[in-house]
User: Fold this.
Amino acid sequence: MRIVLLGAPGAGKGTQCKYIVDRYHLLHLSSGDILRRHRVRGTELGKKAQSYMDSGGLVPDNVIIEMMIGEIGRAPAGGYVLDGFPRTVKQAAGLDKALGDKDEKIDAVLNLSVDEDVIVRRITGRRICPKCAAVYHIENVRPRVDGVCDKDGSKLVQRPDDTAEVVITRLKNYNEQTAPLVDYYNRGDSVYTIDANGDAEDVKELIFSKLDSLA
Ligand code: AMP
Assistant:
């Protein structure tokens, strides 16, 4: 199964992807995580992406398309969930073209819909482990010891693009560049919009019942 997960930053895409890949044995391909790993490794791609990412802008389409098509090409036959990609209509068209060349297609597009005030609270309270990328929240998903990763003891940090100022830019980019993807994919009749304002566990059940009905 090949799934695209759409939703504004902070809609819970990363959290829901983890549930989905565990249950359906898929590969989680998060463009943001892949870019952050490039930055940690200090690759050319990571260096190129850095300034766009920290200011809340989008990394150029051609760079992202090439990176993600490469990742998809190495994915196992069971399928994958795309998280954070595509983020523009040009990226979606690039993805369709690459899949079409292999006689493949996206099976389902899940659109996580969340109110903007909920998004801002979720993002600005988010803290991550710089080492293992585990995600916490200062109110909802607290580590056992404040500010310390449960898994490896690293000091948790706030992503530079999770500050209140940068969130505004990211939401603007989302509304202008990514939200039109819902219409793009709706033409193929494969978009399922999920109310993702609630608890992660409740949202997970909504997603599972939809995906079970498709399997
Ligand atoms: P995320 O973790 O998905 O919120 O992504 C973090 C940042 O990485 C974004 O704000 C962008 O700067 C960059 N990024 C991730 N995915 C993409 C994409 N598909 N297109 C362009 N930029 C991206």
In short: Residues 2-114+172-212 form a domain with the Rossmann fold fold (CATH 3.40.50.300).
